[in-house]
Amino acid sequence: MVHHKIVLFALICLVSATTVTNNQGVMDSYVNPGLQSSIDELTQSKIGHMVIDLAEVTMRVTGAVDSLVEGVKAFGRQIEERLNLENTQWEVVESEHNAKVISLSSQANQAEFDINREKKVLNSELIPRLHELDDILLGLKAKQTDNTQSFKEAEAARNTQHESFVLTTTEFTDALRNIDEALDLLTDLFKSGEVRAAFIEVSDEQKHKVNKALRQVKANTENFGHQYSSFIQALTNLTEGFNFKDRQVLKEMCDFLNSLRLNIFDALTKAYKDEDSQKQQDELRRQQLTAEKAVFDQQYADFYQEREDKTVRISDVETLISTREADLKAYQDRLRTENNNYSANLKIHDDIVSSVQQELAVLAKALQVVQTPPFLDFLNGRIAKA
Asked: Which range is the signal sequence, renumbered to this chain (predicted)?
């Protein structure tokens, strides 16, 4: 056993120091063609050349090559162990690589899924809703503007109505005052004469006062419109040709003025009622517009807040997309680096395996050659010649 170890040690040392040299010293005697071909093939490698040379040394020392065969087999087992160790270590490397590839691929796929999901939310939900909210807010803004304009128009209309009411009631009141004044004058005429007399003594001053009062009544009532046109015409006729001395005509004049007074009073009463009705309608209109304004303002505030929320959400989604895109690129870069490193390591591994397998093949071939009778004859011939 000790001898085998010595041979094996010598074999290993010789492998590390031997170089391929010219085979002429080995082949300087006759060798059969088959053996020659095998020796030529073996001496093309360091291990083959070493086995041939060591076979001669072993033959010289021990007279046999049995110890060399055992040594070569032991060396072959060491090489196989080295091959097994390389394969075992490579399995670990390959397993770690596959785990990294699976992890990085999974992370990249998740990042890509997140990006596509958020882009879908952004493009099919958030941005369309933002545009929709812009249109809604624009419409509500127009309604708010219309509401404000309606307030102004209602206020202007109410002011116009009130101004018309004040003017009309003032005219009606003036007309009633003038009619009352005319009636007072005419009543005084009745009192100034005998009750049974057909005619009344009327002074120029009294006539002047009555005419003035009647002209004033006419001036007041001319602005009242077509509904008083017949009264105005009758009043015109009376003031132009009225004989204040005729008691009967004077009575008719009083009846006419009383009738006119009653109509104007009714019109004045109606004006006040219309004013109250217009106030109520204006109040209802203002309440309606106020309620509409409250609704529009609340809707605008709600939709505006939603738009603000959507804007923030869009910003968050865009940030998330940018972050996940950066993550995806990082995963892809790491995956690419991992695959490149794996490819480089695989080539190294394959080269090692190929080299070791070649060494094993040479050792197997050498073992086959050194145990053949022609090779032993060859060695004996070499030794005897030396």
From this structure: 1-17
